[in-house]
Batch of 4 targets.
Target 1
Amino acid sequence: MTIYLTAQTLHFGYSEQDPSGPGKWGSLRPEWKTCSTGKQQSPIDINVKQAKFQPDELKAVYKHAPAKLVNRDHAISVEWLEDAGGIEIKGVLYNLIQCHWHTPSEHTIDGVRFDAELHIVHKSDANQKAVISCLHKIGESDPFIGNLTDKIKVLGPEGIDLGRISANSIKCVSKRNFRYMGSLTTPPCDEEVLWTVTEKTRPVAADQLQLLKGALKE
């Protein structure tokens, strides 16, 4: 859980007007200095004309495993409690850890920001990190969020067990993706994170978006 523990236990803000906002992250704690000094920081604006498309080597090998729905204040998170499979990229297996949403999106494409962004977080046995980013536009309901709606409405600090679920139900992986080396988008902003941002956007209903926003302290 290295990817998310710092973000869930230590306070930081998202607004630039906040004394603990993104522009100040690097000075809040010594171990967060990469947020200010890093050279491969995420999120980024993706320039489609400069992107080079190649056959994608990402293979999803997810499987059902016990999971829990948790409100981490800055994100609604689904956290898998046992081996839930993962993804393979260039022969490296990255184990599924959790997924969470940001509203609006953190990444932009050709300067366009989207209504929401889902991050599916993975980590290899060698502690290499890989995140799949799925961008959302207002439209039809998202089935994965739909299955969580009733639970999000009553979600408390203790979280809610979801039983055995698979990330295959998210249906985020696409045939054409943008890939780059970046960082965690929250403190400590560690770099050498392999990002896969899907080119195809997914719809999310307006009421689902409001549900996610209403549950957060962002």
Target 2
Amino acid sequence: MVENRVGTLQLFSDIVIILALSVLVVLLCHRLRIASIVGFLITGALAGPHGFGLVHAEHEVEVLAEIGVILLLFTIGMEFSVTSLKQVKRVVLLG
């Protein structure tokens, strides 16, 4: 039971660190006039286990990232209409 609480606290701590770094990266990238995605990639490499090791719950963060990608793709899918999907069908299927 105690291990579960420690794991939950570690995950919560990692999420707070990720969110705080994300806000800082967005502000810095906006000021430098570069794409935020570049800042996110660099920050992820530095904050991850192969950098400064600020994020410890790697597996749990990966699961949350996959859920985020699923939600993003679902949201993008909601923006498409059936007619627009039919228009790009040939490009999607044939490459």
Target 3
Amino acid sequence: MNTLEVTAGFLSTGKLFNGSFKAHLCLVCLFLLGLSSVTAYAVSSESSVMAPRASRSLLLDCQAVGSFAAAVGERGHILTSADNGKTWSQANVPTRATLTGVFFLNQNLGWAVGHDQVILRTRDGGRNWSLLYSNPQDERPLFDVFFKNAEDGVAIGAYGLYLVTSDGGDTWTEGDFMPKKYSSTVSDQETREGDDEIWDFHLFQYAPSENGHRFIAAETGNIFRSDDNTSWMAMPSPYNGSFFGVLPLEDDTLLIFGLRGHLFRSEDGGVSWRRIPVGSQATLTRGLRLKSGEIVITGLAGTLLISNDGGNSFVVRQQPDRQNILKAVQTADESLILTGAFGVKRLTLDKLGIGNGSDPHVKDN
């Protein structure tokens, strides 16, 4: 299967029930651009075009640090805001490749990744970016990026792509992503023999936990955990559909979610799972925990899931426009920034029934 293959779904309706949501969105983006697989090789070295409506273009990821926020997406668009998402400016970016992930260590230092395996870095708060790495001939896009500090980082992507750096991104090498099964019934020899076949999956999100674990949400029901940031384990999975997001909470509690509204909760670091009914069959994309403790999960078809009990139950707050929501982050003034098919928009918590004594589990009349 090609990394951009779609097995079902339509971007405009949010009815994506199979395959990779980021691969699907990026494929639609390439169709809109009129790019073929041949011409796509050239976009990693071409500068992004300044566009007045960039804030309304397809944006796949965002991050906030205090009142600062950045969003990335199609055509190499990177937008930054210094006022909690109220106004946005387009950055100078040396690529037109679709960007799928962004991470800021602080309000100045950040990285972005995407198609053609482009990896970008900024040192001035996202105003200007430099191209550190690209490998378009490999045809495996990157989906997410994370840095532990200013030197040590990882970027993950399609077909088990796992790149690491120890010099802030100046140089990258492909790591050996060969997880061992958590089950003690599988011998090391059996695991090694099956590595090439078993672990060649799309890796969608990389998420650290407060207690030092690292998690990766992946294709076909895979969830990976690392306790030393070097070796990985394939944890028992409660579902064979793709997981697009993982949200570590306190201690060993975490949520994993993905296709058709499937969401599961674990209290032992991913060893065992309990399915949480969410009242929606929309594909779920990313999650965050608010400063006030509530949990927000984003999804296709305008889906926002809200929990005020640590992810044990959720209510649906579907947005009226029903446009796909791919990510949400919270800014210093406690508002939310959403990115997706609509571009970027700001949402105050009262719109979700959160804050001022309101209970998100009480549905609107």
Target 4
Amino acid sequence: MIHIQKAKFPWAVVHMDLITALTPSGDRSYNACLVIADRYRKTPILLPCHKDETVMDTALLLWNSVLSHTELFENIISDRDSKFKSALWTNLHRFFRTNS
């Protein structure tokens, strides 16, 4: 069993999951939903997206919808593979102009 760290403040630790196989909707025919949940407040944010979005698309979605009004997360918990998470962190640090 993996120990999941406790969040010390809002948006420090987030859970990220992609819900797919949704009926296309909206003017952009979204067929998926990116769920970002703040572990501290248990607050979810649901972001419409496409199931085949790239790492850069996901990073931009996070930047524009969540990180524009929070600080950079300390940890992202996700079932995505380590290669995806590493590329996501690289892009997020690039947006914040910090070293990863």
